[in-house]
Design a protein that fits this description.
Number of strands: 5
Shape: globular
CATH topology: Rossmann fold
Largest sheet: 5 strands, mixed
CATH superfamily: Resolvase, N-terminal catalytic domain
Strand content: 15-25%
Radius of gyration: 13 Å
CATH class: Alpha Beta
Helix content: 25-40%
Number of domains: 1
Distance between the termini: 12 Å
Structural class: alpha/beta
Order of helices and strands: EHEHEHHEE
């Protein structure tokens, strides 16, 4: 599969900057995973992570469910969700239901779908 690698970045407020997360996840995708920059799509939100009702997150999930995304990279678990329940639901939705890899850098997590 040669699909798109999605970088998901989130900060809690509109006055915070996403640049550091974008750089870290992009470098991981290109340097560690060997992904070409042209195969990377960035999804982001500037709002709280207390739930998954966020525009960038919803756009990412739609792209995953439509088969456009091969893997997702996020810098921290807390960028995806603030609760274990939401994170578990994301893992199930991304990896189990849609066969998409999920890489969370701060935890050293690299979940890949089972062939």
């Amino acid at each position: 599969m040669t699909g798109t690698t999605a970088l998901y970045c989130r900060v809690s407020t509109t006055d915070q900057n996403l640049a550091r997360q974008r750089q870290r996840t992009s470098e991981y995708a290109t340097d560690t995973l060997g992904i070409e920059p042209s195969s990377i799509e960035v999804y982001s939100d500037k709002q709280t992570g207390t739930d998954t009702d966020r525009d960038g997150y919803r756009d990412l999930m739609r792209a995953i469910e439509s088969g456009e995304i091969e893997r997702v990279v996020a810098s921290e678990v807390s960028r995806i969700s603030q609760s274990v329940r939401d994170f578990a639901a994301t893992v199930e939705r991304v990896v189990d239901e849609n066969d998409v890899g999920l890489h969370i850098l701060d935890m050293g997590i690299g979940l890949n779908p089972v062939d």
